[in-house]
Amino acid sequence: MAVDPIIQPIVRAVSLNKKVRTGDTQLIILQDINLVINAGETVAILGASGSGKSTLLGLLAGLDTPSSGTVYLDGVNIFSLNEDERAAIRGRILGFIFQSFQLLPALTAIENVMLPLELLGSSNARTTALDLLGRVGLGMRLKHYPKQLSGGEQQRVAIARAFVTQPKLFLADEPTGNLDSVTGAHIINLMFELNRERGATLLLVTHDEAISSRCTQRVRLAGGEIIN
Amino acid sequence: MNLPRISFRMLVCDWRAGELNLLLFALVIAVGGIATVGFFVDRVQLTLSRQGNQLLGADLIIVSDHQISQHYTDEALRLGLVVSNALKFPSMVAKGENSLLTEIKAVATDYPLRGELRISDNISNVSSPRADYIPNAIPSSGSVWVDDKLANRLTLKQGDTIEVGATKLTVTALITQEPDHSIGFISLAPRLLINAVDLPATNLIKQGSRVTYRLLIAGDAGLVKSFKSWAQARLVLGERIEDIRDARPEIKTVLERAEKFLSLAAMASVVLATVAIALAVRQFILRHLDTCAVMRCLGTSQKKILKLYLYYFIMFGIAASSIGCVLGLISQEVLTYWLSTIAEVEIPPPSLLPAIHGLLFGMAILLGFALPPLLNLKSVPALRVLHRDIGSQNTGSLAGYATGLVTLLVLFLWQAGDAQLGISVMSTFILAVVVFGFFGFLMIKILSSLLGQTRGVWHYGLASILRRTAINVVQIIAIGLGIMALLTLTLIQNNFLQDWRAGLPSDTPNYFLVNIQTDQLRPLENFFEQNEILSPTVFPMVRGRLISINNKIVLSENYFDTRAKRLIEREFNLSWAEEIRSDNKIIAGHWWENGGIGEAVVSIEEGVAKTIGIHLGDVLTYEIAGQILSVTVTSLRKVNWDSFRVNFFVVTPPSILKQYPATYITSLYLQKEQLTVINKLVKNFPNFLVIDVEAIIAQVQKIMEQVTKAIEFVFLFTLLSGLAVLYAAIVTTHDERVYEAAIFRVLGANRRQLVRVWVIEFAILGGLAGLLAAIGASSLNYIVGKYALNMPYTFNPWVFLAGLLFGGIGVVVVGLIGTRGALTRPPLQTLRKIA
């Protein structure tokens, strides 16, 4: 894939490898991944189960560490940083949505959404969170705990939480994997809408060809390698 | 299906995956602690008793007023014990024209069986320090060893011949230390040690002679104990058994307190270990719910799941308890080395009993607390495979925990060795569980009202506590119990140490002067003045025999207790006083006012009152010098016998006893360079009985020092168990915390923010638990002090600060150590591991 010398890529993976040792054997999860994603793009990462999609997404977000190679996020080599510095970059430029929502059970919907802003030291976290929860249709369920919400509602809280800091990059790991098709479709629409409104870059892992067809770029993985 | 093999495979897999770490840690520390403390209590008690037995000259003595039947010796020898015969009698001993009533002791080979007899060749020169040594044998036939008093009064020197009954014997040495030297006030005559072989030649033992026969016995503590119970059942009139407790009340107090403290420390270890194991088992069960759900899906029956885990726990329990026992055995060796440096007695060989005790304890407590939740585990619904929330609510029913508690109670009473103490301590702990639970819940609810007013890290710290209210209440109870046990031990230990570190004051009397006549009081005062010694207070002493209580004749044969029998048979030393002494305390009734003029009343020492069965309001009748005196008991006193000061069992107002013939007694402290004064004193007042208690004081001090060290060591182990509890309590929420940390990291939280959230959460939990523990410890300290250790309760406000700080800081430190991995591990690894 060619690198445009003028447009500054938001994500750039260079010779990314991930290997795991299990007993005497070494398992190759990702092999020599080189990838460039420019600001404003919507990218789908496709592949069968075990092809390394989620691992790649985790590495691109700096949530995991590679065996070799590195990732540049907004021009910063994130694997030359320590865990704290990587967390700071995530807080500043990145929003993440998991398949299993990963909301904090101790916090209400509004508190979950406020959390990233409070960690950044924002003074109007509550107002921003309120707006966004209203935007995702949960204005009436602010004080509910994750356990009291349905799967679709939990994922909407997670979307609100991911967008609340106005991230430049928005990562989603099979966001509809735990939802029925109707709810899943609503969630995808919401995600694309919010992404368009905010002019962010969207990078999502999916099995679903229909979802991937809405993206400007598609990256297909097989056996830990990019095949097209 | 070979279930044990599958269980074993599961065990190996879990072990490799680190799933068993906490449970293993808790069980190893628990069993190791119990084995070590159990062993330690055994050995320390034994060693201390032996140290004490040096003052008795044996482990046990049968004392009789008639020739001791051969069957005692036979039985002792059969058991493999060593025996030695001795007899004592008073007789006149003469040198030339001077003669003196002397207590003669005839001893046989092997005397003494315990302790040291020391002699000096320098008999006459008392002003210079004497070089003394331990002789190889008892005096050879034809020779005798004399004590200071006899040497002084008969002006003896080495080689002098003295007449003992019909024979003449040569003085060869001076006794400087005699292990079984009585300090009772009756037999304080000068002493003479002869070889039993020479006894017939003296021709002094005849029908009606006042001879006391003594059979000294020593050997393995267990065998001595069985001999004692065998002999106890065969004692006839005139025979009694003495061990160190009967013979030395001042040592008895020290030893009994030490034993109670050590058993208390062992009980604390039991509680702490149990709490740690119960928490670890809970964690284990939670982590295995999924495995069970999958097994259920694959068609495994509930019964099979139960069996699988039963085998699993039995195998695990045996392995972990064995490791614990090995730890205990290693500590045993360390202790043996350590004890051998402080104790001058031979340390009894190690026994396997504490190890077996530890193993049984480990298995009982593991199964007691693991079985009830296991019953739950087997009934995990297969649907959990689809819905993870299902089946995770109950990790143990109330009935289940009751099984564990009953197991604990049984073990506890076993460990306590004292039903009353065990039950009262256990009840306090059970009450503490309820109170801690209630107040823990209440405080968390109060905190919840603050949640809306907090922001940032405070908000997230508090929110975590509120979210996990139920498990946090469990954590508060567990941590609270752990800290409560530690604080209680600290408080009691402090009381002990304060008492004992101060030890006996440096001016503790080392000499007693007895038999001072009324007309010698003035000259004695002058004597002290001339010798520039502060004249000590003298106390009157009237001898009287208790003949009836409430007009009912008292007879020694009506008492089973040997001490009671002896008290009834002998004459009491009665005294009078206007005011109560500072080292006496009224515990029932009241002291007389205005000197009690004309009041026929009496104050009795509580111990003697209990032994004989005297109560407040009883009328006691004494026979004093042929006259009858009846007095009413108006107060019971507690006397501090450790003080080595003159004290009396029976005290009346002056007007009651003053009319009877009295002698006086006093005690004084003399420094080493003043010792020649004693010599002068004996020459000026030859009728005085001078008792030297220096050796006994030294022995008591030595025992106190050892007990102090023993207590400090045992405490260390308890502390380790306490830390295990803290760790186990924190680990119960470890997975959730690490998971939350990973989410925080994903959302951009840095290390400082995470640590601050945890610190707030841990500090609140630990602080709450510490405060509640301080309340519990103060109550338990009061109960134990009052009912078990006979120590006055002093409220210690510092315990609350200590509880708060120990709880707060301890939980923060242990908590942060436990969760530190989550700070450095990439978040995705954590999320994958937990998912």
Short descriptors:
heterodimer, A: 228 residues, alpha/beta, Rossmann fold, six-stranded mixed beta sheet, 7 helices, globular, B: 835 residues, alpha+beta, 3 domains, six-stranded mixed beta barrel
User: Which percent range describes the beta-strand content of chain A?
Assistant: 25-35%
The Cα radius of gyration of chain A reads 17 Å
Q: Can you count the helices of chain B?
A: 25
Report the top-level CATH class of chain A: Alpha Beta
Tell me, rounded to a whole number, the average pLDDT of chain B. Answer: 80
Would you kindly provide a written description of the structure presented here, covering whatever features stand out?
The complex is a heterodimer of chains A (228) and B (835). Chain A has 228 residues and is an alpha/beta fold. Chain A has a single domain, classed as P-loop containing nucleotide triphosphate hydrolases (Rossmann fold), CATH 3.40.50.300. Chain A is built from seven helices and ten strands. In chain A, the strands form two sheets. A six-stranded mixed sheet of chain A has the order 6-7-8-3-9-10, sandwiched between helices. In chain A, strands 2-1-4-5 form a four-stranded antiparallel sheet, with helices on one face. Chain B has 835 residues and is an alpha+beta fold. Chain B has three domains: 3-50 and 252-502 and 700-834, no CATH class; 63-70 and 83-219, no CATH class; 511-692, no CATH class. In chain B, a hairpin with a 2-residue loop joins strand 2 (82-95) and strand 3. The A-B interface holds A 58, 61-65, 83-84, 87-92, 94, 96, 98, 100, 102-107, 111, 115-116, 118-120, 145, 147, 161, 165 and B 389, 455-456, 459-460, 463-464, 466-468, 736, 740, 743-751, 753, 823-829, 831, 835.
